[in-house]
Automatic annotation (TrEMBL):
InterPro entries cross-referenced by the UniProt entry: Immune_Signaling-Apoptosis_Reg
Organism from which the protein derives: Ciconia maguari
Protein name: MEI1 protein
PANTHER family recorded: BCL2 INTERACTING MEDIATOR OF CELL DEATH, MEIOTIC DOUBLE-STRANDED BREAK FORMATION PROTEIN 1
GO biological process: meiosis I
Taxonomy, superkingdom: Eukaryota
Length: 302
């Protein structure tokens, strides 16, 4: 079925949402729910379909071409298609890199547009933001060097006449710029305050990947970002005083992130002791899987 469904997608237009959305979901499901051997073949089938990749290019571009809905929580059929498109492309990036699959058609995206979709949200539905952050994590983890993706950014869009990066920091973080990094971090912090579980999970994961990317590129910048005083206010907001509030998965993962990058001004010995005390009093067998995993990573980091 993978072959005819991918061919069918390639014959569609982005406005064919009723047909495209379940079809893209089917392709996404095939990539994630099959055996490793079949997964490699599935990736090869999809990446060899030039029409499908051209269609995905058009779908992603609709993200910043269409007007935002009047109600941010409303997921229209067009938004649902965008979610499916971003998630599928993020998966293709991941598995193409894992299996070193041959690419027959590249995708081209403007990095500034992708970042602005998160930074300037313009009433985008939560699931669409989560999907775009999944894509952003994929490109960050691959150091913007996937053979499937051509990144057009502020330092790449002007070809031979492009200006040199404005600072040594921008040069080190290329194709990101420092101002984009800080705008993205602030936007992610603001999204965490919403306390929506899927959104919180995606935001924390994106923050983790971003700081890891920065640490490889420029350790000073990574440590500077991880030690921003606003992080402390963010933790105070998330810790609303409820019982076992330190054992929220997103809080534990944030604490682990700050510990990893030695942000002693954000998390102190007092907070560490409180987490250990709550963990000692909790029934560990009854903790949700996400909490258990986050607590394990935190304790290993300590």
């Amino acid at each position: 079925l993978l072959f005819p469904v991918s061919n069918l997608c390639g014959k569609c237009r982005p406005r064919d949402t009723d047909l495209l959305q379940p079809s893209l979901n089917f392709l996404y499901w095939n990539l994630h729910q099959t055996t490793p051997c079949s997964q490699q073949r599935a990736v090869a089938v999809l990446l060899s379909n030039v029409s499908l990749l051209e269609l995905l290019q058009k779908v992603l571009e609709c993200t910043w071409l269409r007007s935002p809905p009047s109600e941010p929580a409303y997921l229209s059929s067009e938004d649902a298609l965008l979610c499916s498109g971003w998630l599928l492309v993020a998966s293709l990036l991941l598995y193409q890199h894992r299996y070193n699959t041959k690419v027959h058609q590249t995708l081209s995206l403007d990095l500034t547009e992708v970042l602005n979709a998160v930074i300037f949200r313009k009433k985008k539905p939560i699931l669409l933001l989560v999907s775009i952050m999944q894509f952003l994590r994929a490109v960050l983890r691959q150091n913007f060097s996937s053979s499937l993706l051509v990144i057009i950014g502020q330092n790449t869009a002007q070809g031979a006449t492009q200006p040199q990066p404005s600072s040594l920091q921008d040069a080190a973080l290329h194709p990101l710029a420092m101002r984009q990094v800080f705008s993205l971090v602030v936007s992610l912090q603001n999204l965490l305050v919403h306390k929506d579980l899927p959104l919180s999970q995606a935001v924390v994961a994106c923050l983790e990947t971003l700081v890891e990317y920065l640490y490889v590129k420029n350790q000073d910048v990574a440590l500077h970002v991880a030690s921003q005083p606003w992080h402390q206010f963010l933790l105070f907001t998330l810790l609303n005083g409820g019982q076992k509030s330190f054992l929220q998965p997103e809080v534990l993962r944030l604490m682990t992130l700050f510990l990893r990058y030695q942000s002693s001004n954000i998390i102190s010995q007092k907070e560490i002791s409180q987490i250990l005390q709550e963990a000692a009093e909790a029934n560990l067998a009854e903790l949700p899987e996400a909490t258990s995993r986050a607590l394990h990573l935190f304790l290993c980091q300590v």
